[in-house]
Amino acid sequence: MSLALAEKWLAEHAELWEQGEGRHFTIVEQDTDAFFGGVNFHSIRPDHRRTEVGFWLAPWARRRGVGSGAVKAACEWAFDRWQLNRIEMTTFPDNAGALELARKLGFTREGLLRSRNFERGNYVDIVMLGVLRGELRQA
Predict the structure, then answer these.
(1) Is residue 138 situated within a structural domain?
(2) pLDDT tens readout for residues 72-118
(3) How many C-alpha atoms does 114 have within 13 Å on its Cβ side?
(4) Residue-range definition of the domain harbouring residue 82
(5) Do residues 37 and 49 make contact, with C-beta atoms less than 8 angstroms apart?
(6) Quick check: pTM over 0.70?
(7) Residue 9 domain-assigned?
C-alpha cells in the first residue's frame, strides 16, 4: 500500500471512529514520523467485552519488531479503554508473519474456519486466534 492510498483509507475510516464502530491507528517511526503501516480494531462488542484486531505493515517496516510492538501497544490500549476480556485476530493459514506475530504476543490459535471469507473471487480459509486479558506477552 502506498502512503497516498493509506492516507485515503484512514480518512475514509474516520467516520467509523466517530460512530464507535472501529478504531484505526497509523504506525510511524517515533523519531522521523516515517510511515510503517496500521493497526485497527473492528467488530467491537462492548456487550461481550471483545473486539478483533488487524494490522498491516509496509514492506520496509517488516521483520524489525515494528508490527509486534504496535499491535501489543494497541491491544493494551483496547483492553484498558473498553475493559475487554478478549481480543481476536484472524488471518490466512499461510500468513507466516502474522501467525508468528500473534504467537509472540500470546495469542492462541483456536481453529481453522473453512471457506469463511469470499475474497478475490474465491472462498478462503481463515485461522482464528485469541488472547485474553492478562495473556499478552512482550514481543
Answers:
(1) no
(2) 999 999 999 999 999 999 999 999 999 999 999 999 999 999 999 99
(3) 0
(4) 3-132
(5) no
(6) yes
(7) yes
